[in-house]
Amino acid sequence: MPHFHFELHLTLVKFGEQPIHMTKQVMDIYMSIIHEVAYSMAKSYIEQGWRVEQLECRNFVWLPDITMTWGD
After folding, report:
1. 44 with 32: CB under 8 angstroms?
2. In what order do the strands lie in the sheet with 20-27?
3. Are 30 and 37 in contact (CB under 8 A)?
4. What are the boundaries of each domain within the chain?
C-alpha cells in the first residue's frame, strides 16, 4: 500500500496582531488525528488568546512503501 507525507499549514490570528503561520511535515499515519496534531502545534498560542483561522494540508508526496521517509 502506498504511503505519503504532507505539510500541515496553520494560520493563527489575534485581534490587533499580525497573523502567525506555522508549518509541520506530517506522515500519513497521523491523517486521522490531524486536528490533534494542529492543536498541539498551536497550543501555547491558543492559550494566549490566538485562534486557528486556517488549517491546510499541502504538498503531498507519495511513497512506494512505508520504509521510505521524507529523508530518503
Report:
1. no
2. 20-27, 3-13, 51-63
3. yes
4. 3-63
Q: Which pLDDT does position 16 carry in this prediction? A: 93
Non-local (6+) Cβ contacts of 12 within 8 A are: 19, 20, 21, 22, 42, 45, 46, 50, 51, 52, 53
Q: Is the pLDDT of residue 31 over 60?
A: yes
Cβ within 8 Å of residue 40, ≥6 positions away: none
Of the chain, the end-to-end C-alpha distance in Å amounts to 18
Asked if 9 contacts 22 with a C-beta cutoff of 8 angstroms, the reply is: yes
CB 11 within 8 A of CB 19: yes
Q: Is the pTM of this model over 0.70?
A: yes
